Amino acid sequence: MKPSLQPKTCSIEKLVTMKEDVRKVLSGAKTAIRRNGRYADPGEIMDLEGRKFVVHTVYSQTLGELTDVDAKREGFTTVEEYKQSILAIHPKMPWLPKMRVWVHEFSEVID
């Protein structure tokens, strides 16, 4: 039995908005994004510059559980590189290993 997900806190249109993230998704370098809220349900379609991406997995994870494999899905080489990028975007945010985030994994819809 799959665990139930909490209600969404935002819409899928706001899942990937930063130019650099959009570029990474469109190039195939980014196949996941972490947010402090849940922006999509599995099966929802995200449209980026006319290309469609389906969200196939949504789950909660702590920052302390992040691995280099997770960082690569985010478009970075290591967890440390990902962490520095996030802290540059959110300079007042503490990086707390117990902080929970929502992971949204997606792939391009190929017709």
Structure description:
- The structure is a single chain.
- The longest helix is centred in the C-terminal third of the chain and has 11 residues, at 79-89.
- The chain has a 4-stranded antiparallel β-sheet, with no helix packed on it.
- It has helices at 19-27, 68-73, 79-89, and strands at residues 32-35, 45-48, 51-62, 100-108.
- It has 111 residues and is an alpha+beta fold.
- It has one domain: Sulfate adenylyltransferase (Roll), CATH 3.10.400.
- A hairpin with a 2-residue loop joins strand 2 and strand 3 (51-62).
- It has 3 helices and 4 strands, in the order αβββααβ.
- The mean pLDDT is 94.
SSE order and pairing:
Layout lengths: L18 H9 L4 E4 L9 E4 L2 E12 L5 H6 L5 H11 L10 E9 L3
Antiparallel strand pairs: 1-4, 2-3, 3-4
End-to-end distance, in Å?
A: 31 Å
For the record, the CATH architecture stands as Roll
Q: How much strand content do the residues show? A: 25-35%
Task: Identify the overall geometry.
Answer: globular
CATH homologous superfamily - what is it?
Sulfate adenylyltransferase
The strand line-up of the biggest sheet is: 1-4-3-2
CATH first level: which class? Alpha Beta
Order of helices and strands: HEEEHHE
What is the makeup of the main sheet? 4 strands, antiparallel
Do you know the CATH topology? Sulfate adenylyltransferase
According to DSSP, the number of beta strands is 4
Q: What is the count of DSSP helices, taking H or I runs of 4+ residues?
A: 3
Number of domains: 1
> Which stretches are low in confidence, meaning pLDDT under 50 for 5 or more residues running?
none
Q: What percent of residues adopt helix (DSSP H or I)?
A: 10-25%
SS-based structural class? alpha+beta
The value of Rg in angstroms is 14 Å
Estimate the mean pLDDT confidence. Answer: 94
